[in-house]
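Example record

Each entry pairs one chain with its bound ligand, phosphoenolpyruvate.
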Amino acid sequence: MDLKIVGASDKKEIVDLGDGVKFGDGNFTVIAGPCSIESYEQMDSIGKLLSAEGVKVLRGGAFKPRTSPYKFQGLREDGLKIMKEIGIKYGLKTVTEVMDPRDVELIGNSVDMLQIGSRNMQNFALLTEVGKFGKPVMLKRGMTATIEEWLMAAEYIAKEGNSQIVLCERGIRTFENYTRNTLDLTIVAIIKKLSKLPIIVDPSHGTGRRDLVIPMSKASHVVNADGLMVEIHPKPEEALSDGDQSLRFGELQTLVKEIKYLDKCLRGR
Ligand code: PEP
Ligand code: MN
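Structure tokens for the complex follow.
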């Protein structure tokens, strides 16, 4: 594997979103929010919950990659506006997905971190564009991507001078269909060995099932991931996308408690 920039090195990359919010600094950083931004009220209730629970990063899709072109595609610019307002109101950092190289500037100017989704992991024009743009990037693993393909995708971004990249494991396609994807936690330990980049885990897309999100979140912490991304919704039954895997508010509170407990247990290692 010819990793020139993101390979293992003594100096681990710390990805900095500002105001003390970092990935790879030894803390377990949680990102939470809805799959799709649906309304101001929805985002306001989520922002309020996150700030009360000490979760510092808000996610939400404005431009959605949907399997069917007939399903909700996101609120687009209106969604970005809502997320920006809520981020400011509650002092939260924000992350959203960009799918088109032509949108990098528009989206990049309204959030703190750009997400490259699983379906676009090898969209090389997009990788190059976010590399040039320079803001922190979350690069999700392609659903059929090998470790080498994933790290090479990160190289495309880093080659443009931007190594502020957080890798995100979100499950891979296997024969198993009880879960939406198979969450590959092995890759966390492998990435720690091969790369200087921080890695977080998305057990929401990784399992597709609400009941598995908390157990796999805890496992991610124990395997030494740098953080987590989870989907939440005030009323998952009414969500316009991914309701089945979205935590309820009470479950997010439980998750935060469990993570704090694990922080204490793992600190001495
Ligand atoms: C998402 O995080 O909103 C998303 C669409 O995830 P993925 O690209 O991993 O499917
Ligand atoms: Mn989703």
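The radius of gyration is 17 Å.
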